[in-house]
Amino acid sequence: MFLAPLLSITGLLSAVASAAPFTYPLSNGFPKLSSARLNEIQFVSGGPLPNGPLPAHASGDAILDLQLLAFNELHEVAFFTQLIENITNLVPGFEVPVTPLGAQPLLNILEASQAQEEMHALEANNALAKYRVAEIQPCKYIFPVSNLREAMKYAQQFTSLILAALQDVEDNLGQNGEAELIRIVAAILGQEGEQNGFYRYFLGHIPAAAGSVTGTAASFLFSALQHLAVVPGSCPNINSIKLPIYGRLTLLTPFVPADNCRLTFLHSSGQSPSHMTYLTGGALPIVVPVLNSHIVGNQTRIHVDFPFLGGFSKGLVIAMATRTGGPFASPGDVASETIFGPALFDVN
Predict the structure, then answer these.
(1) d(CA 234, CA 215)
(2) How many CA atoms lie within 13 A of 149 on its CB side?
(3) Which candidate, 56, 76, 139, 266, has a CA 20 to 30 Å from the CA of 21?
(4) pLDDT tens, 316-342?
(5) Side-chain half-sphere of 316: how many Cα atoms within 13 Å?
(6) Does pTM top 0.90 for this prediction?
(7) pLDDT tens-digit map of 117-174
């Protein structure tokens, strides 16, 4: 078995340098839709928007959670739209093999995913509008994929990260006593889990990696999407989302056996983290010291242990370079000490 990083830094920089950004609106007008277009999306997605009443008031934390949800869903809609276009237009590298599905069955699944993410984005932005908060506007995106397998792997890993972050959202809502909103988020979380099982199966993995999916802090989702796909400066009102953006952290180790081993990461020079902190499954954060580091140009390589046999689960692993070694009781505690991150990789 192997651990695979989300993307190599070389592939990411190449994609950013050469690809034209994806821009909104979609051909159906999304994110602004006529009644007829909304009906079409609801049909493809499998059902209508929820019609239950929202709470009369929402806390500042709940507003922030809705903003993050809308920001994420707009990224997902853009990704699936471009992937569908690449498959439909027979873009080299995006040819669909006859097994396990074939092109049309795969397109049917991806079109449903696209419509479902449009529904999620509308749901989040409609809630913001109810609370008289500006709706989150879409960015421009360059997705770091060059073929179908990379695209499905990207979909699987960002969906795993969403599943991780929505746990933090539910926790925040629960602590603020906003149970009505928890139901909305839980319904989205469950739907994303259904999607992710398919992406894992397409990649040759069992649908559920472990008994507990990895959890994380919402700010790590916010940073990851900007590091991976958002074109800097292209988001009209991203400054309204009051979450930190950490420095980029890239895993350089291309293939890591599912065993105790050593990993190499890259980050921009400047601040020097003392520890690497991992989030995995339902475990408390696992912290290891930075063993050594060396500067390469304006970047720094750091080497750390990866104690896989010391309590890691299969599935998503989230790594952050932190200024202290904790101990950390939760992903939120890790976020407060993070300098660079997250770096994402999977155990399969």
Answers:
(1) 29
(2) 7
(3) 266
(4) 999 999 999 999 999 999 999 999 999
(5) 32
(6) yes
(7) 999 999 999 999 999 999 999 999 999 999 999 999 999 999 999 999 999 999 999 9
CA atoms within 13 Å, Cβ hemisphere of 49: 19
Cα 252 to chain centroid distance, Å, stands at 19
Burial class (CB in 10 A: 0-12, 13-18, 19+), 160: buried
56: CB partners within 8 A, 6+ apart? none
* Cα–Cα distance for residue pair 332/221, rounded to 1 Å: 12
For residue 311, how many C-alpha atoms fall within 13 Å in the half-sphere facing its CB? 11
What type of residue is 32? K
Cα–Cα dist 274/253, whole Å: 19
Which position has the token pair 């092109």? 103
What was the pLDDT predicted at 40?
Answer: 98
Residues of 261-282 as b/e, b for ≥16 C-beta within 10 angstroms? eebebbbeeeeebebbbbbbbe
Q: What confidence tens digit (pLDDT) does each residue in 63-106 have?
A: 999 999 999 999 999 999 999 999 999 999 999 988 778 899 99
Closest-CA residue to 28 (of 41, 15, 14): 41
For the segment 218-241, the average pLDDT, to the nearest whole number, is 98
| Residue given tokens 């809630």 in the structure block | 127
